[in-house]
Design goal:
Elements (H helix, E strand, L loop, with lengths): L8 H6 L10 H10 L2 H9 L5 E2 L2 E5 L5 E8 L2 E13 L4 E10 L2 E10 L4 E6 L1
Antiparallel strand pairs: 1-7, 2-3, 3-4, 4-5, 5-6, 6-7
Length: 124
């Protein structure tokens, strides 16, 4: 006679703990949970059109980051306006910014890679 005893969620999860020892398990799990954002981050970071740049940013009490200034080619450039922000769950955020260079308003994309604490710049 088979008797199935219903386990609570915590005990049921414990039976899968040995799989955590498998190489790459955590990475595969994180990849499936983030919908491929890790691949997206590597794609952006490997993109030669993006240049690592130093950025002065502000953080609010919720931990949200906003770029204020960045430096490129020896010039310090003020971010006049952040038009929009696209937040990735894992890798970080992309900011579409308005800046003034040589008295001309330009749009640039700044990317903040949270896990690496790196900012990159891509001109529009």
């Amino acid at each position: 006679m088979d008797v199935n005893i219903k386990m609570d969620r915590q005990n049921r999860a414990k039976q899968f703990a040995p799989f955590a020892a498998l190489k790459g398990y955590e990475d595969a799990l994180a990849e499936s949970e983030t919908g491929g954002e890790k691949a997206q981050e590597e794609n952006f970071m490997g993109n030669s059109s993006q240049i690592p740049v130093p950025v002065i940013a502000s953080f609010n009490s919720n931990g949200d980051v906003v770029p204020l200034y960045f430096s490129t080619e020896g010039f310090r450039i003020k971010v006049e306006k952040v038009q929009w922000k696209e937040a990735g769950k894992e890798w970080g955020s992309r900011f579409r910014c308005e800046v003034i260079v040589d008295d001309v308003m330009e749009e640039v994309d700044l990317y903040f890679y949270r896990n690496r604490n790196v900012w990159t710049l891509r001109r529009k």
